[in-house]
Amino acid sequence: MEGFISVNGQISSPEDAQIPVLDRGFLFGDNIFEVFVAFGNTVLDLKPHLDRLRRSAEMHRIPIPWSDEELSFEIQSLIETTNHPKKYIRLVITRGEGIALYQPEEPSPNKVIFCLPARQESEEILSKGIKLKRRQANFVERGATAKTGNYIRSITALEQAKQEGFDDVLWTNGDQELTEATTSNIFLIGREGDLIEIATPPANSGLLLGITRSRIIDLLTNAKIPVTERVISTDEIARFDEGFLCSTVRGLVPIQQIDKHRLHSTRTNAVFKHIQRLFSTWVATEVGYRVNWNTGEKVEDI
Question: Domain check: are 34 and 83 in the same one?
Answer without folding.
Answer: yes
